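CORE FACILITY INTAKE
Project code: CF-77B
Contact: R.S. (postdoc)
Sample description: multi-component assembly, two entities in total
Requested service: structural model of the whole complex
Turnaround: standard
Below are the sequence entries exactly as provided by the requester. Do not edit them.
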Amino acid sequence: MTTTGDVPFRILPRITDRNAHYWQGGREGELRLQRCRQCGYYLHPPGVICPKCWSKDLGVEAVSGRAEVLTFSVNHQQWMPGLDVPFVLAIVRLVEQDDLRITTNVVNCPPEEVAIGMPVRVLFEPHVDEEVWIPLFEPAS
Amino acid sequence: MDTDLVGERRAVISGVGQSDIGRRLYRDPLELTVDACLAAIADAGLTTDDVDGIATYPGAMDTPPGFSGAGVPEVHEALRLNLNWYMGGLELPGQLGSVINAILAVSAGLARHVLCFRTVYEGSAQGTKGRSAVMPGGGGSGSGGYRAGGFMEWLLPYSAPSASTWIAMIGARHFHEYGTTRAQLAQIALNARKNAAVNPKAIYTDPMSMDDYFAARMISWPLCLFDCDVPCDGGTAMIVSRADTAPDLRKPPLAVEAVGTALHGRPGWADYPDLTTMACHDAGAQLWSRTDLKPTDVQLAEMYDGFSFITMCWLEAMRFCGKGESGPFVEGGERIARDGLLPLNTHGGQLSAGRLHGFGFLHEACVQLWGEAGERQVPGEPEVGVACAGGGPLGGTILLTRSR
């Protein structure tokens, strides 16, 4: 967690071998997801076996970062001290696969301008000291 | 229907009990648990010697504070039981999944009388600081080194620590697809408050109007303060017995007609394929496949309202209305009133009677079917009732009848 003046309040994830690609791909500016090398199915949250073809040959690939807002809520409750409200929590669907969803924040946009169906693209909020790059989404023009 | 494949019919509910319920009781949670358990055992006309099983959700847990007042070993020790079967756990088809486990245990002949319980003390654990006092990263927990793990690693970094934010997004999609409105959603809270007014154990009993609802502060759109349940302290218990024990019991037991526990979609809070509903959809469908009774036979419905929108999903999942039609169904509140077509949350739900976390719904369904609900009794001697608990990727439902 960081509460420095430069970087917004975030509880950070514990980095593991299984999730590091997602939380650290932003260091190179890439949204990376697990992908089955046998059948091409993207798996998120990351797992240990492909649920489509049962291969354990899972790799990591960069995706385009483009997505569509499936639904969202404007949150007004200050859950933790230091949390800026209101903010938008959204479920976005990545363009690469129909069931590929990320729960995230939509930023760089007034909450009242967020809409279901809106195209968005990934950006990263760096927490360099903690080696975490949080994937966020903003309106794609 | 091949009744050999509906084994739950061998089970009955033979007694219920509750401890005192209060906004902040500051009493030992094990004591609340024992109070509820002994009351249930007495209500069934049994003694602790007769009890040979325990089932509980979620089992003993230290965090979050107040979430679990006791697990299996404490109750086993406190009541000096001799157990033939027991379970206590978190990963179940909703909180009533533990009761369903008990139903399965007696149906399988593993136990004759299973004590089921759930105790919370979130009211006193949170004190006056509110829920943030027990949130990870909140209120002076020395959380500088905290990192999110488990399923929360995908939610906490996005400032979504509460199910209110996750459920709100499903509600928002429902509003978008079906035109549901806040004024319709409000009926869940308004109905609960009306019923709580005649429930002597309810936490909130002051009248609530539509204007009050719209004046309440927004939590996570479309859920406002009154769409969220009230933490409290209290223990609830019931006895699940094998049906052939009826002659030993104090009163005619309630028959278990069918249960629903299914979850077909992915178990993430954001991964269920249809973003306008939840696991309840599958649990409800499964229940109706296990009985010749129909939704129109149900005379009272006690359905999870931890957040009001979950109740809307249960209304549709249990087919009391069509998919996407819960808004018009509850509009105006007449259909769901105690004298309406489908009395709903007759004790005041978790929204007004208190967050007993699932078990209050089954307790109320039983009390109503036994005709013991006093001022809030649904008229006409109802014989068929349903209890539903759980939200998101968790859902379990139990259909009861007064006589078989």
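Facility notes:
- Residues 3-126+230-401 of chain B form a domain with the Peroxisomal Thiolase; Chain A, domain 1 fold (CATH 3.40.47.10).
- Chain B has one domain: 3-126+230-401.
Invoice: internal transfer
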